[in-house]
Amino acid sequence: MVPGNNYIWLPNLTFVRLNHVLFYLNFNLNSMSNLAIIPRLKTFSTSMRFLKDPMSIIAENLAHYGTSYFFYIGGVYPSIFTADPAFIQHVLQKNHRSYQKSPLHFEHLGHYLGNGLLTSDGDYWLRQRRLIQPGFHRSRLASLTQLMQSVIQESETRFDQLAAQGTFDIAHEMMGTAFRIITRSIFSTNVKEEELEEMSEQITTLQAFIIQLIRQPYLNPWRKLSGQVRKHEQIATKFDETILGYIHARKSSGEYRDDLLQMLLDSRYEDTGEPMSEQALLDEVKILFVAGHETSANALAWSWYLLSQHPEVVAKIRAELDEVAPDRSLEFEDLGKLEYLTQVIEEVLRLYPPAWITDRQAAKDDEFNGIKIKKGTFLVTYIYGVHHSADYWEDPEAFRPERFAKGHKLEHPYAYIPFGGGPRLCIGNHFAHMEMQLVIANLIRRYDFELDADHLVEKQPLITLRPRYGIKMRFWRRDNLLA
């Protein structure tokens, strides 16, 4: 027991408040009608394995207990896990007011990444969403096309050098490209390469540490005592200082630029006519950096992996590009005409959804199809599971872009939710889709490519769904195939 803090130590968990533990330990399971229950002891026994390989545990549970079941996160926290799209729609959309972001968002993500759209909740989140939403409308995205294209074209020199060297990790390169795109989209000006690399490393380091805090909470007391928490707080502070430097420079310059930072600076609350506070502005810019490159980069990495296995799909994409924009770069008006490339991207996001899982916590008692949900219960929604369910997709493990051809009808509206659903649908979904179109189109025209035959490709389900060992590939210029 930690004196004066009313905390208790639990094996394989963390220091948690005693009154919370008493509530959870006395949780009434009789209310869980029509729902299979995984015993607390079994949850304890598999907790370490779950940290390392959650997807295999989840697959076993779904096969044994069905698409929804009751379990205890870490052996303590009462939770409902579901891969039922109707249940997910109930939580995220139909009765979303009864659910809130889980404490993990506030305690960990919010602590290091700020109180932005991704981590905030309640009235504050709604006010910020209404303020920022117009910045991602079609007219705004059109103005960002050239910024994205300039980054992609500048990266061609680096790609040529990598291609000449032989095999390289395309996942790493997509992370760098996506980070440069979001940086240019926010600031529109060039950021020094060494500063870009430092910022990218800071975000990567912070996210890796947040994952440790969430997946291995029983080590959190040691992390605090050993100085790891303080070390990462200092990294977060340094990242903040860099972002604030650019914000202050823009304000003092008096320049107007057609980018995301200008959009945030110009935004005004409807009720007061006032702009965001500097802290709110900083938090939202930080979230744009983190959410604006991680998901796109991973989706692009998986795209190249799948395309390397399906040359017939590559040929169709190239034929469509030649038809829509022969001998010129794509413009914003062209993107809506790339119907087949759009199908390819949607199928990639089905097979490898970056946001593979999400959670909520019941803010009040609720019920769904006879399942009574007590206030405080965690709801874990398994997006990857819905996307791979044979109940909603024919041959679900196969890569078939034609599933998303015009006229295709989903078996259930929440059988496909790569950007979430309900009021918290990702605000940057169109931005990410446009980015993927431009990156794939530019590189697929310029290069042929193949997967390193000896490289193991495996999923790594962290905050987003990454390739565990990267994706080693070889690229070569199409206009010099014999070299």
Detailed description of the structure:
The chain is of the alpha+beta class and 483 residues long. It has helices spanning 18-25, 40-45, 47-52, 54-65, 85-94, 103-113, 122-132, 138-154, 156-165, 170-187, 193-215, 220-225, 228-253, 260-266, 278-308, 311-324, 332-335, 339-351, 383-387, 429-446; strands at residues 7-9, 15-17, 36-37, 68-73, 77-82, 99-100, 168-169, 358-362, 366-368, 371-373, 378-381, 447-451, 459-461, 465-467, 472-477. It is 53% helix and 12% strand. The termini are far apart. It is globular. Helix 6 (103-113) runs antiparallel to helix 11, helix 15 (278-308) crosses helix 20 (429-446) and helix 16 packs antiparallel against helix 18 (339-351). It is built from 20 helices and 15 strands. The protein has a six-stranded mixed β-sheet, with helices on both faces. The chain has a three-stranded antiparallel β-sheet with strand order 7-15-12. Strands 1-2 form a two-stranded antiparallel sheet. A hairpin with a 3-residue loop joins strand 13 and strand 14.
